[in-house]
Amino acid sequence: MTIRKGEDWGSEIVIPEGIVVAADDEALFSHLNSGVIPASIAVLSGDLARTVSSSADSSRYRHGERAIGAPLDLLEVTHDGGVHRAASHVVARRSWLRGPVIVVANAQFIGEWDVAPRSHPNDGYMDITEVDESMSPGQRVLARRRLPTATHLPHPGLRTLRSREQSWDFAKGLDLFVDGVRIGRTRRLAVRVLADATSIIF
């Protein structure tokens, strides 16, 4: 069950057998898209790890050790090339400085950027930021400078919303990145939340 406002998230558990330990978001992407979704995962670094304050010490995630376990939402990403799963975020753009930009976040961070400060990876929602195509390069540079401190919002050129499912059609193809991995170019994009799809251990 997804988290509710005011509730604690996660509880102490004994780490089960078969836990997937990923070095970073790119490795986690590989695990999530190689077949069946793992029942439990840990990630040592990257945007999801930073969001949940995960430890970078891989020895903590051995079977039988104690840690915190919590349910985790994933994102199902449908595009021109097929379907992928994401744990952290989905980005569609041609350039950060020109044209439309779509950011769909399940994690709070993209690198040093605090893109979705109100995002929670188990609230059953995805946090979406859309950059209007008309937003000037100068205004985008100013917004990017404010991203590390999450002071880029509110801004008239940025639209934010929370949703369980959303789709877009682009007149021209945009480059698609799923958990930082470049997938290719797409003219259509649909993302939906897979609530409680797996569990994260940290």
Outline of the structure:
With 202 residues, this protein is mostly beta strands. It contains three helices and 13 strands, in the order E-E-H-E-H-E-E-E-E-E-E-E-H-E-E-E.
Could you give the count of β-strands?
13
Radius of gyration: 17 Å
Unreliable stretches covering 5 or more consecutive residues? none
Helix vs. strand class: mainly beta
Provide structural commentary.
It is a single chain. Strands 1, 2, 3, 4, 5, 6, 7, 10, 11, 12 and 13 form an 11-stranded mixed beta sheet that branches. The protein has a two-stranded antiparallel sheet with strand order 8-9. The chain has 3 helices and 13 strands, in the order ββαβαβββββββαβββ. The protein has 202 residues and is mostly beta strands.
